[in-house]
Amino acid sequence: MLPPVRAGNDPSSISVLCVDLDGTLIKSDAFADSARALVRHHPSALLKFPAWLAQGKASLKQKIGNTIQLDAAQLPYNRKLVQYLEQQQAVGRPIYLATAADASIAHSVADHLGLFTGVLASDGTTNLSGNKKLAAFRQHFGDNFSYIGNARVDLPILRASQQPMVANPTFRLRAALRRARIAPVRTFTEQTSPLKAWVRAIRIHQWAKNLLIFLPLLLAHVRDIGLVAASAIAFLSFSLCASATYIVNDLLDLDADRQHPRKRRRPFAAGDLSVASGIVAVLLFLATSAALAISVPHSLARISPGYALDRPYRFLVWLAIYAVSTLAYSLYLKRIAIVDVIVLSGLYTVRILAGSAATGIPVSTWLAGFSIFFFLSLAFVKRFAELESLSNRGGTIASGRSYHISDLEQLRTFGSASGYVSVAVLTLYISNLDAAQLYRHTHRLWLLVPVLLLWISRLWLQASRGELNEDPVVYAITDRRSLLLGLVVVAIVLSAL
Predict the structure, then answer these.
(1) Nearest Cα residue to 197 out of 241, 247, 238
(2) Which segments of 253-338 does DSSP mark as H helices, in order?
(3) Can you tell me whether residue 92 is helix, strand or coil?
(4) Distance in angstroms (rounded) separating the CA atoms of residues 186 and 179
(5) Which domains does the chain have, with CATH numbers?
(6) What does the pLDDT look like over 329-375, one tens digit per residue?
(7) Confidence band (pLDDT; 50, 70, 90) for 385?
(8) Are 38 and 64 in contact (CB under 8 A)?
(9) Whole-model pTM?
(10) Which of these, 305, 342, 350, 418, could form a disulfide with 376 (CB 3.0-4.6 Å)?
């Protein structure tokens, strides 16, 4: 039973304000968020989906809503719209939350905001959307209502509304409003540009990690256009696969990200991109990545027949190993202390091995040993920086991790030691006859030792001071001194040839 409509002394003096939920009051879709959370926390429930759906969409929403409880406080609200609703409530205007989402979610949102006179929502039998929502409005309010929506399905309601308003309107709704010659009284837009959102979601800056694919080619000092082309295709394939895994990780960690001071601004957590679009992007990226991986040996054989691969699809195997390992990391392994950093460091080494598979150039034991310890140090510093940030916020336990604030000193010891061991491996390589086979002036390579010691020591010093971004890759490609030291490394290597 809805509460009576009151607006000052004269109920007819002001229209009832009805507000949609999905895409309007919140920038995400409550049903998609609930379904994602269900798959994340109760994957066995997928087996019940066909039976639930057979009972109708409203029943499906109710079943999911009864199984998963979304935290209304963490949903990505349209702040401009919330402010407007607060103003309308202050002047005594009756406000109703009217949504096709299940009633359990709608009431949770209404209780959290404390702005609504009542709630109209799907009830397990009726999916309150489109014309059904309009019929409910006329039943309860007659023609004395105004509506705020965002999608094409809201057009009949906006046409009947005394004051049609929109929030983050879709392209289809904007086009339909123009055709119907309906001019919204107010528009509440709070969305990031889709292009900017996708650039952030696929994390193009993280593609810098995949430059490791070129390392076997560069260190072998082989100059062949076919090998360069094969490495470039492998780089693009690996980057698309990596972006797909980043999206999967963001979708799986949506709840935790919304509670994080920085990660809550990620496109999916902030509602700038929908869960459905993320799933489509993952499938598209993985399909394109696999197609490129299959083309690597054929491109190499066509451009440089002399370098045809004996095991043509070994790169595809390493790509699959990376994808499976990353998925396992996102689902489970990242919650196991120490195991998570070992897996992270291993994923860097996998990139080098993938580059070797794409070109047929073997990876030396020296390079493998150096990369394991060097990237283990970077993985430790990433966890250390996260814990340091948590400590500064007054937290004690990292959400979704198995680390405590008390682990800071231990992580610092592990990480700095790993970095220095990688430099020790480098010194052993320079002293070995293997280096003399590739470099005429091996003694010049000793200059690499103080440069790497400087960078690793500075990295950990800044992390200890709380001055390091939680991602060391971002630090490496944005820090001027790091970029300068990188140029010095290149100059030293070239001078030793």
Answers:
(1) 247
(2) 254-258, 275-303, 314-331
(3) coil
(4) 18
(5) 11-188 (3.40.50.1000), 194-496 (1.10.600)
(6) 988 888 888 999 999 999 999 999 999 999 999 888 888 899 999 99
(7) confident
(8) yes
(9) 0.84
(10) 418
